[in-house]
Amino acid sequence: MNDCERYTNKKCPLIGSEECKALNMSCCDECPVNDMYDEDKEAAGEGLKELRSLLGGEVTELHKTRECLLCKGDSKGARDWYGTVDIGHEYGDKPQKMAEIKLFAKTGYIVPIHFPVCAKCKKNIERMWFAGDAAGVGIGAAALIMMSIRPIREALAAVNSLLPIAVFIGMAAVAFIVRALIKNGALRRARRETETNVMRLPQFAKLAENGWFEVTTKAKMSQVAFSKNLPEHGAFMQKECVSGDDGSGGENCSCGCENR
Q1: Cα Rg for the chain, rounded, in angstroms?
Q2: Running DSSP on this structure, what letter comes out for residue 122?
């Protein structure tokens, strides 16, 4: 059974609408709107319409492009991975009831945005996250091992009773500094090739002007999650409608439209 045949609740006021396409559920039984009262379904539809207006169409279509979004310069790498960031919008205090699109009572909407990423940019971003960690952990572990060796500890204590503690603190400080230097170097190298903050991209900058922000950032860097494949269903993950010769969606249509 294809997805279109699963949209069975003909009485739902959202069926066949742009809001139904935006939800992109696998079937009516999985849709968070399905079990609502009719008036709540209409309110949910209005909320989705408002959300679509706030988002605009371009950013929700990014996952369909084949060129890396994070590459700097005119030469763009091919899509090898999908990156995902969560963006939020402070949508006042109006209560919301949509569960599939995560919502907070005070902060408003939170929506995952998927976009193409090449292997080089993925490597650059991961290098920024983990660069220097091995060196920092190694120096810290060496300090612990050294202080656990009794002859070394006693030799230092013979000079001054506080010297073992001072040496350990000094090595921990060295570990922190080395880690920071390596990480900053990796960040500088990565930023020459890769945009490390998605909100600086033109597609996301438009959202920022409209009140959107990235939910999770660290040192002004985006926290991007990577995956090889996109989810089959979920909000704003709809496939393009494939119309048949007679105007029907046919067996390839999975957008929830009425053309089936």
Answers
A1: 26
A2: H
Containing 5, the helix (H) or strand (E) segment is helix 3-6
**In a 10 Å sphere around its CB, with 0-12 CB exposed, 13-18 middle and 19+ buried, how is residue 230 labelled?**
middle
Pull the structure tokens for residue 58. 């371009």
DSSP state of 165: H
Q: Locate all alpha helices (DSSP H) within 103-162, ordered by sequence.
A: 119-130, 133-148, 150-159
Tokens describing residue 180: 């920071």
2-27: pLDDT as tens digits: 444 567 777 787 777 777 877 777 77
> Structure pTM?
0.65
Residue 17, by phi and psi: left (phi above 0), alpha (psi -120 to 50) or beta?
beta
Express each pLDDT in 226-238 by its tens digit. 988 877 766 666 5
What is the C-alpha to C-alpha distance for residues 260 and 246, in angstroms, rounded to an integer? 10
**Containing H/E element for 218?**
strand 217-218
Instruction: Please report, for residues 37, 45, 71, the alpha-carbon distance to residue 97 in angstroms, rounded to integers and kept in the order given.
Output: 12, 10, 38
Are 171 and 145 in contact, with CB atoms under 8 Å apart? no
94 CB-contact burial (10 Å; exposed 0-12 / middle 13-18 / buried 19+): exposed
Q: Which residues of 157-190 are buried (b: 16+ CB within 10 A; e: fewer)?
A: eeeeeeebeebbeebeebbeeebeebbeebbeeb
**Closest C-alpha among 57, 27, 33 to residue 46:** 33
Give the Cα separation of 104 and 19 in Å (integer).
Answer: 20
